[in-house]
Amino acid sequence: MSQTTISEGQLYISAASAAVRYDVSEQLIRRVIASGNVEVIRIGTKTIRINISSLERAFTKLND
Length: 64
Fold this sequence. Notes:
Number of helices: 3
Largest sheet: 4 strands, antiparallel
Number of strands: 4
Order of helices and strands: EEHHEEH
Strand content: 15-25%
């Protein structure tokens, strides 16, 4: 699983890596992104990286 560090020590991962990390489908990860509940960085037109901390918070909210 690859992680990208972008400024200020924040870790970002791809949607595919996030799906593996949380044992969910990539489609679910993309729905969470579309909901606007996670911080993402767009690199070019297709590539996105998801902030791990904000993704963990989003999944915590879903489980509450």
